[in-house]
Amino acid sequence: MHAVTNTADVDFQKKISQELNQNQHLQRTAEGFMVHHYAGTVTYHVEGFCDRNRDVLFTDLIKLMQSSQNDFIRALFPDQVDNSCSRPTTAGSKIRTQANELVDALMKCTPHYIRCIKPNETKKSKDWEEGRVKHQVEYLGLKENIRVRRAGFAYRRHFHKFLHR
Fold first, then answer.
1. Which InterPro entries match (predicted)?
2. What are the two backbone dihedrals, phi and then psi, of residue 60, each rounded to the nearest 5 degrees?
3. How far from 28 is each of 17, 24, 67, 130, CA to CA, in Å?
4. pTM
5. pLDDT per residue as tens digits for the range 147-161
6. Is 135 exposed, middle or buried (0-12, 13-18, 19+ CB in 10 A)?
């Protein structure tokens, strides 16, 4: 099974290179690729990439989409659906469960506005990269946020009001 996964990863890397060869925001590396986002450069390693990002659609969702009134939506899903009722454990379902647990814990707390700044790439104490910190402060809009809040425009809509909106 590892060979299949490795083949899928290699094929994925080739496809990225072919399709996005001229994209100025993409840079290929030996292990994968880098994407130059507006917030900074992110490195992606292709080993295990397809396996980590594989997700399975549940049968009831496929059936729902097949019963759509929209012809385009119906055409996106196959006619045959496996009738097994078991739901596979997917990365998405694990993340959803963990996110729900986190939201439950957070709803029991008093929220605070917190932004984390990563001071370095070395993960060592007392290692301060001024350029990195400045970039994050600018990207997060912290100066503007502080200015707006100090001017008295801090606003937080209560969750139940937001939900009912």
1. Myosin_head_motor_dom-like (IPR001609)
2. -65, -30
3. 7, 11, 42, 28
4. 0.39
5. 888 888 776 667 777
6. middle
